[in-house]
Amino acid sequence: MEVSIIRAGMLTTVQDLGRTGHRAAGVPLCGAMDSFAMRVANLLVGNPENTAGVEFTLAGPELVFEKDALVAVCGGDFGALPPWQPAMIRAGEPVKFSHARRGCRGCLAVAGGFTIAPVLGSCSTFVRGGFGGWKGRALREGDVLETAEVFRRINGKWHMDERILPAYSAAPELRVVAGAQADEFGGGLFSTEFEVSSQSDRMGVRLKGPALARGTSDEVASATVVPGTIQVPPDGQPIVLMADAQTIGGYPQAGHVISVDLPLVAQLWPGSTVRFREVTLDEAHELLLAREHALGILREGLALKYS
After folding, report:
1. What's residue 32's pLDDT?
2. Has residue 220 been placed in a domain?
């Protein structure tokens, strides 16, 4: 089935859950910025959670489906379709997403998934590298994507328990595990409110606020970084690394946003504010297990919702 891009929106790309197993070779993870939203969107249309979907930022696309299709949009609210619910789209009927009403990024899944040839085991687009996804780039007006020929029908009326959803906010408190150089900043990371800069992108969310002063001038050896790592460059303005981040970095690491809270970072828009709160590694593990348990319950609950 063909899906035509009538209007591309802003940075609309094909993404799955990322390109794992290649970081030692310098290949970023990529994948959906809000992986939780992409996982749930796929579950809501009966797909495996790692099925390729479409992510868009701040302004959504306009799409036309060649045939009837079951879709779901999760993450930010872009109008057109209610978020966190499956919806039937009629053939030839334009689906017009607007600017984000809430949040920053939307994740669109379609039953059967988009038919994209994987690169290094993933269908995710790495725009900076020019590979993966649809021709290694963001979608443009006139592009036509293919989806698998799958038709699913929703059984009965139901809705998802909203208690499973991340606590999206324009001013979230992000939980952080201390980084290797945390002590060198004297707790400044946890006593300051930061504003999200317009220079943020899929590589990292840049923050603005009182400069974090480092208590030493010693050089830092380059070390592994991952999505969630909080780097502090010489200007003292922290950067939360995200999906397209490099695999190694030489800036001091003040902390690491825990995996459960990365969806909150993905949905921040310029002008949003954040604060950080330190938690232990054990607490981070417990929170991750609790989220995976909740997703497991959702997965089981959805198993009988389609025919």
Report:
1. 98
2. yes
Domain that holds residue 107: 2-154
Please state, in angstroms and rounded to a whole number, the distance separating the CA atoms of residues 89 and 87. 6
What pairing do the DSSP bridges indicate for beta strands 229-231 and 253-257? antiparallel
Q: Where residue 210 sits, what CATH number does that domain have?
A: 2.40.100.10
Contact 42, 51 (CB under 8 A): yes
Q: Which residues contact 70 (CB under 8 A, 6 or more apart)?
A: 45, 46, 86, 87, 88, 89, 110, 111, 151, 152, 153, 154
Looking at residue 259, its amino acid is S
Whether residue 218 has pLDDT greater than 90: no
Query: Are 193 and 56 found together in one domain?
Result: no
User: How far apart are the C-alpha atoms of 107 and 34, rounded to whole Å?
Assistant: 8
pLDDT of residue 160: 85
Q: Is the pTM of this model over 0.90?
A: yes
Q: Quick one: angle between helices 281-302 and 35-44, nearest 10? A: 20
- Please classify residue 257 by burial: count the beta carbons closer than 10 Å to its beta carbon, then call 0-12 exposed, 13-18 middle and 19+ buried: buried
Query: Could you give the percent of the chain with pLDDT greater than 70?
Result: 100
If one counts every other C-beta atom within 10 angstroms of the C-beta of residue 163, the result is 6
Across the beta sheet with 62-65, the strand order is 95-96, 62-65, 2-7, 144-146
User: Which residue, of 124, 154, 184, is where some domain finishes?
Assistant: 154
**Confidence category of residue 37, pLDDT binned at 50, 70, 90:** very high
**pLDDT score of 154:** 79
pLDDT tens, residue by residue, 262-305: 999 999 999 999 999 999 999 999 999 999 999 999 999 998 87
298 domain residue, yes or no? no
The number of C-alpha atoms within 13 Å of 144 and in the hemisphere containing its C-beta is 4
Both 61 and 179 in one domain: the answer is no
Mean pLDDT of the chain: 95
If one counts the domains in the chain, the total is 2
Same domain, 101 and 185: no
CA–CA gap between residue 117 and residue 275 (Å, rounded): 40
Q: Is residue 167 part of a domain?
A: no
